[in-house]
Amino acid sequence: MIDLERAFRERAGIRATHVVRAPGRVNLIGEHTDYNDGHVLPMAIDRWVGLAGAPRQDGRIVLHAMHRDERHESSLDNLAPVVGSGRHAHWSDYMLGVAHVLQQAGYRIGGFEAVVWGNVPRGSGLSSSAAVEVATATLLASMFDLKLDPRVRARLAQRAECDYVGVQCGIMDQFASSAGVAGHAIWLDCRSLESRALPLPLAAHEAEVWVIDSGVRRGLVDSEFNRRRQECQQAVKALGLALDRVDLASLRDVSPEDLNRVGTTLEPTLLKRARHVVGEIARVEQALRCLEAGDLGAFGTLMNESHRSLRDDYAVSIAELDYLVGSMQDTPGVFGARLTGAGFGGCCVAIARREARDEVENTILPAYRMKFDRSPTLWACQAVGGAEILVPELLTP
Length: 397
Ligand code: GLA
What we know:
Layout: H1 4-12, E1 18-29, E2 39-56, E3 60-65, E4 70-75, H2 93-104, E5 111-118, H3 128-143, H4 150-165, H5 172-179, E6 184-189, E7 195-199, E8 207-213, H6 221-242, H7 256-262, H8 268-293, H9 296-312, H10 319-329, E9 334-339, E10 347-353, H11 357-372, E11 377-381, E12 388-389
Parallel strand pairs: 3-5
Antiparallel strand pairs: 1-2, 1-12, 2-5, 2-6, 3-4, 6-7, 8-10, 8-11, 9-10
Helix pairs in contact: 2-3, 2-4, 3-4, 3-5, 4-5, 6-8, 8-9, 10-11
The protein binds alpha-D-galactopyranose (GLA).
């Protein structure tokens, strides 16, 4: 239980005028497709980043982090992006980045003070950073009376991460956090930002969505992530030449048939990266139809194929995730399992019958613990709505 209003009062010495929260997300399928203009299918989850704050008249930004008991102060008219500075990102940069891009986009904001709290595990592939960014945009919008619809808010939050923090992420995480719908997964076309909320047919199968945290914090993620992006761009160039389509803009515009035809002209690593992205975009389309038909079995098979592709072609898995995913895929009652998020550590996601949980908790997790000397955790998560303005009592996880 956390009383954010009180936490703010204790640190700032004044009452909070605004309290907001934004959720993390789990991606069901469609990994590393967002920055290739493809489709994704995430859902916002019942873990949040919460902020309480109040405006300041002196143009200062004062931030307090509860997880570190730290205070950070800077000035609104002197914000210095991490990008190009040679320094590492600090937790405050995810908030300052939002203030920066809002100003650059012409929104008028003032100084403010805020306390930040969260229960989205950090570095786990559940988008704690997107939740911080979206929560900050929500706080500033309510504080300074800005009109930001969930789509615009997601785009601004993404820009904070790309242009200020320097991770060239796609739009998926911020979109899910900003525009999630309770009880639904979000199908999103990352090129047009057309989206649909799809009910999850879990109850009919007595099924749940599980997130299993491997206990391995993501390493290498920024550098490897940016490298994958570059590889995709190189593949687009090479495919444009091979297909004689100079205007080819992204891997979204390459069909599986195109790739079969000319793929061998690509350098082997680029072919693998392209094969993952093109195949994954096709899998999201199939997954959408499975959800519409209520076919969790076929949906799970697509999740399994997605993991294989992320492991073998996109090369973003690690032994720990392969072990957890493989063991779950072999467990009766589990429809499908895969790593979720960028990879290199973090979590897997599975869709499974409730009754399979005992087997996983009593057999697979202890074996994993023994083998890797890590403490995994499993929770059945709920699909929740996107960022919201709150009264503090609602903030109990
Ligand atoms: C991270 C990024 C997202 C997306 C995923 C991989 O979470 O922030 O934009 O690219 O990795 O699907």
